[in-house]
């Protein structure tokens, strides 16, 4: 864990860059009955970073299953981490990264202790820099679309180009490349990608959206 006296340049030089791929699929809600099928469809479609949130039924079991099934072929993480207990449970299930909608230094400390990549949420330049100084592997810029989309990101990263950011919130499948072009290391996509697959089990539509996303990011 870094401290307040460490320079921004030292933080930038020591950072291990985000390794989960250009898109993180966010699985939130549903009944809990379709988590495994949704994960399998996404990974087999080429979306190999999956975040299962703590307000998804059976999220612990989903993470454990995905890690056992896909091992090093996919990065499986936990989202909407609000306290240390949730982070510990995710680590025990095999998660490799933890995402929060907010910035909490205690969560960052525990994530480092447990060997998890830490992606805290931030909205302002002050919050983004603070998250980076506290040791975030990448900063979740949230809610990205409502903050101003790629144009906002481009302006913020002009002076903060040393920070790795993952914009999340309101990003459509066809919008994702614009965020990468604006300087993001990855994008987080929830319902625009997953749709109602966690509730209805509609994997065909999910597969089509995932294929469109992968094709767009490959261009």
From TrEMBL:
Record's keyword terms, sorted: Carbohydrate metabolism, Lyase
Disordered, as annotated region: 1-20
Keyword Lyase recorded: yes
Tree of life domain: Bacteria
UniProt xrefs under Pfam families: Aldolase
Pathway(s) per entry: Carbohydrate acid metabolism
Annotated transmembrane regions: none
Compositionally biased intervals (Polar residues): 1-10
PANTHER family hit by this protein: 2-DEHYDRO-3-DEOXY-6-PHOSPHOGALACTONATE ALDOLASE-RELATED, 2-KETO-3-DEOXY-6-PHOSPHOGLUCONATE ALDOLASE
Similarity field: Belongs to the KHG/KDPG aldolase family.
Subunit structure: Homotrimer.
Protein's name according to its UniProt entry: Bifunctional 4-hydroxy-2-oxoglutarate aldolase/2-dehydro-3-deoxy-phosphogluconate aldolase
């Amino acid at each position: 864990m870094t401290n307040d006296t460490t320079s921004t340049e030292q933080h930038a030089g020591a950072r291990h860059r985000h390794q989960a791929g250009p898109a993180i699929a966010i699985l939130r809600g549903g009944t809990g009955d379709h988590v495994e099928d949704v994960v399998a469809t996404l990974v087999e479609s080429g979306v190999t970073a999956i975040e299962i949130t703590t307000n998804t039924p059976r999220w612990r079991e989903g993470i454990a299953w995905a890690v056992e099934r896909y091992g090093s072929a996919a990065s499986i993480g936990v989202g909407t981490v609000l306290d240390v207990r949730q982070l510990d449970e995710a680590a025990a299930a095999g998660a490799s990264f933890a995402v929060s909608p907010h910035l909490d230094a205690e969560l960052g400390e525990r994530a480092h202790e447990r060997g998890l990549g830490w992606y805290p949420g931030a909205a302002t330049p002050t919050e983004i820099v603070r998250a980076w100084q506290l040791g975030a592997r990448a900063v979740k810029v949230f809610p990205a679309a409502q903050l101003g989309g790629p144009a906002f990101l481009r302006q913020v990263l002009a002076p903060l180009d040393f920070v790795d950011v993952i914009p999340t919130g309101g990003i459509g499948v066809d919008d994702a490349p614009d965020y990468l072009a604006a300087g993001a290391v990855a994008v987080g996509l929830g319902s625009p990608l997953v749709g109602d697959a966690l509730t209805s089990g509609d994997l065909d539509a999910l597969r089509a959206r995932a294929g469109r996303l992968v094709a767009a990011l490959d261009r």
